[in-house]
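Researcher: Let's do a round of design. I'm pasting the C-alpha cells now; please hold your answer until I've finished.
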C-alpha cells in the first residue's frame, strides 16, 4: 500500500499495469541523478539533458541527446542550432529548479557545474603531428608545461596552456550559488581571486579572471614616463654643497667669502709678453736700466752707496 508514503513525483504505476491504456506525454519531464552526485539529468520522451562534474577539468559542457535524430546517443546537440538552444535553455532551467527543490547531491557539491558551453574548448583526443600520442592534459605536467609556448599546442589546448581570455555566456553553479561571468566580476577582489583559481571557472570566465585578479592599483602596462618626480623650483633646505655643479651659474651672492681666490696663482716663470706691464712690480729691480730716465725722480734715493755714473 503506497497511499501512506509521501514520495516526490507522480504515481505512474497505471502506465505500467494497465493493458488498455497507451499513454504518451511529450511534455512530461523526469529528473534523476547519480547517487554520489557526479551527474544529474532531465529526461522527456525525446530529449535528455545532462550536466556533470566528472569531466570539469576537461571540457565542462552540458549534453543534449536527441533520441529521434541520434538513437545511439553519440552526438551532443546542445546549442547546436536555434531549436536546440531553446530546448536546452528550458530543460536546464527545469533541472536546476528541481535540483534545488529536492536537494540533489550535485546541488550540494563544491565542484563547479556548468549549464553552458565555455567559449574556449579543447579536444580530449590525441594530438597529431610531432605531438602524437599525447593529449592536452599531458601538458599540465612540469615536464611538458614549457611546450605550451609552441603555437601548435596552445591553439588546440587553450585551456591547459591558460590562453583562454574570453568570457562565456551562460551560468555555472558553485556552492549552491548560480552565477555568470558578470556576477563574478562584481564580487570582491579576494572572492574573485579564489574563484579564478578553480580551473573550470578560470576558463569559463577568462576575461574577468585576467582583468580582476590584480588589485586596481597595479597597472597592467608600464607607464610612458618615469616615476621619478620632476625637480623642484624651490631651493633645497640642505646646507651641504651639492657634488654635481648646476647647469647654469647661480644669480645670488654667497653669504660667506671663499677661503681661496678663484683666479689661478701667479706663475713662477717670466711672461713672454714684450710689452711693459702697466702695474709696477712690488719690489724694485736689481738690475740697472740701460738708458737714463727722461725725468728726475720725485723723491731722493734711499741707497747709501755712491752713484756709479759721474755727474756732468
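Researcher: That's everything. Go ahead.
Model: Designed sequence:
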Amino acid at each position: 500500500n503506497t497511499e501512506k508514503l509521501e514520495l516526490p513525483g507522480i504515481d505512474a504505476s497505471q502506465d505500467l499495469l494497465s493493458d488498455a491504456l497507451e499513454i504518451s506525454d511529450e511534455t512530461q519531464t523526469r529528473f534523476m541523478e547519480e547517487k554520489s552526485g557526479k551527474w544529474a539529468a532531465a529526461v522527456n520522451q525525446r530529449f535528455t539533458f545532462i550536466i556533470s562534474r566528472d569531466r570539469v577539468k576537461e571540457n565542462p559542457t552540458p549534453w543534449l541527446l536527441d533520441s529521434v535524430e541520434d538513437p545511439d546517443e553519440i552526438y551532443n546537440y546542445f546549442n547546436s542550432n536555434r531549436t536546440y538552444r531553446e530546448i536546452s535553455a528550458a530543460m536546464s532551467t527545469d533541472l536546476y529548479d528541481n535540483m534545488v527543490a529536492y536537494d540533489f547531491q550535485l546541488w550540494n557539491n563544491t565542484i563547479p557545474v556548468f549549464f553552458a558551453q565555455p567559449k574556449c574548448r579543447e579536444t580530449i583526443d590525441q594530438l597529431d603531428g610531432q605531438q602524437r600520442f599525447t593529449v592536452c592534459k599531458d601538458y599540465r605536467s612540469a615536464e611538458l608545461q614549457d611546450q605550451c609556448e609552441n603555437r601548435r599546442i596552445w591553439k588546440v589546448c587553450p585551456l591547459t596552456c591558460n590562453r583562454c581570455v574570453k568570457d562565456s555566456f551562460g551560468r555555472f553553479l558553485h556552492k549552491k550559488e548560480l552565477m555568470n561571468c558578470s556576477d563574478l566580476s562584481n564580487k570582491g577582489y579576494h572572492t574573485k581571486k579564489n574563484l579564478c583559481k578553480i580551473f573550470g571557472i578560470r576558463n569559463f570566465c577568462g576575461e574577468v579572471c585576467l582583468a580582476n585578479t590584480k588589485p586596481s592599483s597595479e597597472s597592467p602596462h608600464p607607464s610612458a614616463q618615469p616615476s621619478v618626480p620632476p625637480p623642484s623650483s624651490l631651493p633645497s633646505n640642505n646646507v651641504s654643497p651639492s657634488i654635481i655643479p648646476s647647469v647654469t651659474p647661480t644669480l645670488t651672492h654667497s653669504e660667506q667669502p671663499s677661503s681661496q681666490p678663484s683666479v689661478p696663482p701667479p706663475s713662477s716663470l717670466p711672461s713672454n709678453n714684450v710689452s711693459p706691464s702697466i702695474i709696477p712690480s712690488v719690489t724694485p729691480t736689481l738690475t740697472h736700466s740701460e738708458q737714463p730716465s727722461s725725468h728726475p725722480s720725485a723723491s731722493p734715493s734711499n741707497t747709501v752707496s755712491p752713484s756709479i755714473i759721474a755727474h756732468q
